[in-house]
Design a protein that fits this description.
single chain, alpha+beta, elongated
């Protein structure tokens, strides 16, 4: 027989009641009945439990919390989450952000998303009722991919409107024959896949990407500049300065930027005629104390002049409309000069030890041939007679540690060098992350799906670079990179007990990471 009783107990604050379950049992040895009590919990005077018994509480699940909390906080703090909801609506905006967060924390193919999300607190954290089934995600990406209007509105909202911007092109492989821009490009022989090109613009103010465009896989870098400049002007950006790499240098691009009144800073390729003229012109004055400063532990030097552009050709012209700056880093110059003479010495020893071979230049690699052309090799008695070409070596040595840029910037030459180094850092961070973030594009068989996937990858890249910037400013990158931080924070879990979510124990390392990132622990 089982029944319940209410046990009153007097306390300083009045009387409390506790509920017990009583079971009457017969003891065959003592031949009498006895009662067993089981405590059920606090109750009211009538025996109604005021709190669910602890033993009836059920542990539902204990998903990972840390990485998703960090990235959702970054998205909300930067305004990205709010912007996505305003442009795409609350539900689709949250879905885009959730996929972008997963692109950083758990980059995987679409068919694995549903299983991956089950071990995360992402849905509960974002208030998102979505199963992440493969078919649903594919339809969602196609819908996002065909909506170019809202995608352009997003780019316009994220754009900084003015200042320095980095424009770069990356080549992405695809196994699909149905993508609009899929072509056999310059990397097809290496990857075995067709490709398309992605042009992306970063703001140098915060190092974050804010706009991208897709191009055919066979298109040259120089052709893409006109399109992206038009896009920036259409977004209302201006005045702005495009900071680019050598791949974008051409007389046509310089003329285009000047015609559009768009600012630019672009280095000149080493073998270009105007580069050689500028380096030669700078030799006499660049090492003057008046042109020397100190930066990052090394002496740096700058020489300025002007050039003009006439009929597709650049000319030295002190009164020309284009500013040209030759920059030199003494530490780099010393290293490159040492390397040059080491390679010359190695080539001389190689030639001295072998018989004369008139076909030798065809057997050398491009790097070896570059050094071979600095030497004059003749035959005597079937052996090599080697002499150095003084003018050729001098010209090569003059270029060591020096490079020239054409620019519309009015910054002093030292600040211009700092700006270009910052541009290199942005490009390096981008190149280190792109292989992880864009790997999923290879499997997209429909253009609309690929465009939707690119949008998600773009948002993932923006989140990841934001996190990287916070890690750098707090010094965390001296100890760990993003994958290790994710691994540490993934161990921070949250548990649902009796319908109530409770954060598990937070380790000292996890607290330190959150503190250094400036994020509260909730």
């Amino acid at each position: 027989m089982t029944y319940t009783i209410v046990q009153p107990q007097k306390t300083k604050n009045g009387e409390r009641y506790y509920l017990y379950e009583v079971t009457a049992e017969w003891d065959p040895e003592k031949k009498n009945a006895r009662q067993k009590r089981r405590y059920l919990g606090p109750c009211d005077r009538e025996g109604n439990l005021t709190k669910e018994p602890a033993k009836k509480q059920v542990m539902v699940r204990s998903p990972s919390y840390g990485p998703y909390y960090i990235l959702s906080q970054i998205a909300q703090g930067s305004g990205l989450g709010r912007t996505l909801e305003e442009i795409y609506g609350e539900e689709d905006g949250k879905r885009l952000l959730a996929l972008a967060i997963l692109g950083v924390t758990d980059p995987c193919s679409i068919d694995l998303l549903e299983e991956t999300v089950e071990d995360t607190y992402l849905r509960e954290m974002m208030g998102l009722d979505w199963g992440f089934e493969q078919s649903e995600v594919c339809r969602f990406l196609q819908r996002m991919g065909e909506d170019a209007g809202r995608r352009n509105e997003l780019f316009s909202r994220l754009s900084p409107k003015d200042g320095c911007m980095v424009f770069d092109i990356v080549c992405l492989g695809t196994d699909s024959e149905n993508l609009e821009y899929s072509e056999a490009g310059r990397k097809a022989r290496i990857t075995g896949s067709k490709q398309f090109n992605l042009g992306m613009v970063h703001s140098m103010n915060d190092g974050l990407p804010f706009c991208y465009r897709t191009y055919p896989g066979s298109i040259a870098d120089v052709v893409t500049l006109d399109i992206i400049v038009e896009d920036l002007i259409r977004m209302g950006c201006g005045p702005f300065e495009m900071v680019m790499d050598r791949g974008f240098f051409s007389a046509g691009n310089i003329a285009l930027m000047m015609e559009r009144s768009a600012g630019f800073t672009v280095p000149i390729p080493a073998r270009n005629a105007i580069q050689k003229l500028l380096i030669s012109d700078s030799v006499r004055d660049i090492e003057s104390p008046l042109n020397t400063d100190f930066l990052d532990g090394s002496s740096v030097r700058g020489y300025e002049t002007r050039v003009s552009l006439e009929e597709g050709e650049f000319h030295l012209d002190p009164d020309g409309p284009i500013r040209a700056v030759v920059l030199q880093d003494d530490a780099r110059r010393q290293l490159e000069t040492s390397t040059l003479y080491r390679r010359i010495n190695e080539m001389e020893r190689y030639l001295d030890g072998n018989a004369y071979d008139s076909l030798l230049p065809k057997k050398l690699t491009s790097r070896q041939l570059e050094i071979f052309n600095l030497l004059e090799v003749t035959e005597e008695g079937g052996r090599n007679i080697v002499q150095r070409r003084r003018n050729a070596i001098t010209a090569k040595e003059n270029a060591c540690g020096r490079f020239a840029v054409l620019t519309t910037s009015q910054l002093p030459w030292k600040d211009l060098m700092v700006q270009y180094r910052q541009r290199n850092e942005v490009e390096y961070d981008f190149s280190q992350l792109q292989s992880d973030l864009f790997m999923g594009i290879r499997g997209k068989s429909v253009q609309k799906s690929a465009e939707g996937g690119l949008l998600v990858n773009f948002l993932s890249l923006r989140l990841r670079l934001s996190l990287l910037g916070m890690m750098k400013s707090s010094g965390i990158t001296d100890e760990m990179w993003i994958p290790k931080l994710m691994k540490v924070m993934r161990r921070l879990r949250i548990t649902c007990v009796g319908g109530e979510w409770r954060l598990n124990e937070v380790t000292r390392k996890q607290r330190e990471i959150l503190s250094r990132l400036g994020l509260p622990l909730l």
